[in-house]
Amino acid sequence: QPELGKPMRNCYPLPGPDFTYGKYMHRRDGGVPEAIGHWDSVKAKPHKRVMPRDFVTMSRRAAEEGCTKAREFAHYYKHTDIRLKDKQILRYGCKVPPGMTFGRPPRPATPFFDLLQHRYKELWMEEQRARTRVQHVVKKKLQPGAVRENRASFLRAQPLPVKEESFWHPQRYEKVQTPHCPT
């Protein structure tokens, strides 16, 4: 029965204050101090580097042996194992030669004060003013009474070459008889 004036509870009662939530680790359960103070470190295992196969050298030697078909090459590769030399390949974990850099150089940083002072807008405006000045100079070079040259005046001065008409006809059209008209 619900208590008077209260809704009926539809959940389970919680365990007492001595209950521990989660999984208890018997070996190491020092809590936060142990987690902060003692990190698990993994010791590096000495590994033997296996270099990749040198297919260029193996192909050359297979050709010298007289292999010509794909099956012969595959048989030769199966029984011959030639590996790349350590100097020819740069793998992760080896020492990089001094002065060697990887990747692309970074873009130079945009000057922040040029952005704040609207320097790029001023440069663009200067380019537009210079372009307008050049256009005015070109317009002034045209004399006021001079007529601009258009395509028609250009063709009058330098006419296009005349195409020579060819009177050659295919031979099959030479012996065409006149059509017979029934009258």
Automatic annotation (TrEMBL):
Pfam families hit by this protein: CFAP77
Organism: Drymodes brunneopygia
Entry superkingdom: Eukaryota
Name by which UniProt lists this protein: CFA77 protein
InterPro entries registered for this protein in UniProt: CFAP77
